[in-house]
Amino acid sequence: MNQIQILVVEDDAPVRNLITTTLKSHGYRHLAAVNGQAAIMETASHNPDIILLDLGLPDMDGVEVIRRIRSWSNVPIIVISARSEDTDKIDALDAGADDYLTKPFSVEELLARLRVTQRRLALLQLSSAPGSSYENGPLRINYATGCVYLGEEELHLTAMEYKLLCLLARNTGKVLTHRFILQNVWGSSWNNDIGTLRVFMATLRKKLELGDGAPQYIQTHIGIGYRMVRVDDAQP
Ligand code: CA
User: Fold this and answer.
1) How many other CB atoms sit within 10 Å of the CB of residue 206?
2) What are the backbone angles phi and psi of residue 177, rounded to the nearest 5°?
3) How is residue 199 annotated by DSSP?
4) R_g of the chain, CA atoms, integer Å
5) CB contact set of 230 (below 8 Å; sequence gap of 6+)
6) 11 versus 231: which is more confidently predicted?
7) How far is the CA of 46 from the centre of ligand 1 (A)?
8) In the chain, which ranges are continuous DSSP H helix?
9) What distance in angstroms lies between residue 72's CA and the mean position of ligand 1's atoms?
10) Nearest partner of 98 among 115, 119, 75, judged by Cα
11) How far apart are CA 75 and CA 159, in angstroms?
12) Is residue 66 classed exposed, middle or buried when 0-12, 13-18 and 19+ CB atoms within 10 A define those classes?
């Protein structure tokens, strides 16, 4: 039995019912809200563990709902949006959403996102001590010494690659937008720096990934950004 409680914010009744039925059959507890105001009220009064938030709501912009909730809560928020709404998705991630699902999505995708988010929650609770080290499969970062290892081998990263890796590692499981990464690594949000980011990401990957085809640690979200995955979450 899963003790996690999920708030489902969706004005479209068939989609809402599909989600709540899925949650119920997988042992999640759930609450539902049909608009932004109700979502904020439910969050304040019930303190859910995860929020699934449709971005297209009748009374207010989903991004505004995230901003308001983020003013007092760090609850993980997974946004749900249509494929055509990439800009909204990016705004939502920049406003503090953790992940996204694109409509139409499968029940398996929904459950996979929830598992990643739950694991992220559990890790956050475990590893709040600063100066500790990071482990993800054979990858190890010693934050105190600044050394990075892949299995037995030490990786020789440039200062920028190390900064980039640490940012991704500290946000494992969370989708980071180009803008977020640029602001945090380079202190800049110029759009044309995305080219620079790609170059650094490519050299970091060359050192980090084992090179058997698909990226293992760093997922590319085309047009949006990147995510560090736990290697055991990588693909179902
Ligand atoms: Ca909607």
Assistant:
1) 10
2) -75, 160
3) H
4) 18
5) 116, 119, 136, 137, 172, 173
6) 11
7) 22
8) 13-25, 36-46, 62-70, 86-94, 107-126, 159-170, 178-181, 194-208
9) 24
10) 75
11) 32
12) buried
Among 29-43, 48-62, 176-190, 193-207, the least confident range: 176-190
* Spatial separation of the C-alpha atoms in residues 132 and 142, rounded to whole Å: 7
Place of tokens 């989903």: 62
Q: Please give the mean pLDDT across all residues of the chain.
A: 89
Q: What residue has token string 């084992």? A: 210
Cβ proximity of 110 and 19 under 8 Å: yes
Q: Is the pLDDT of residue 234 over 90?
A: no
Q: How many CB atoms lie within 10 A of CB 141?
A: 22
Cβ contact 50:4 at 8 Å? yes
The rounded Å distance from CA 141 to ligand 1 centre is 41
Find all residues with CB under 8 Å of 186, minimum gap 6, and list them.
193, 196
Instruction: Indicate yes or no: pTM above 0.85.
Output: no
Query: What is the Cα–Cα distance from 4 to 48, expressed in whole angstroms?
Result: 8
CB proximity list for 102: less than 8 A, separation 6 or greater: 80, 81, 82, 83, 89
- pLDDT of the residue at 236: 44
Q: Is the distance from CB of 103 to CB of 82 less than 8 angstroms?
A: yes
Distance (angstroms) between ligand 1 centre and the Cα of 74 equals 23
> Measured in angstroms, how far is the CA atom of residue 67 from the centroid of ligand 1?
18
Rounded CA-CA distance 42/32 in Å is: 8
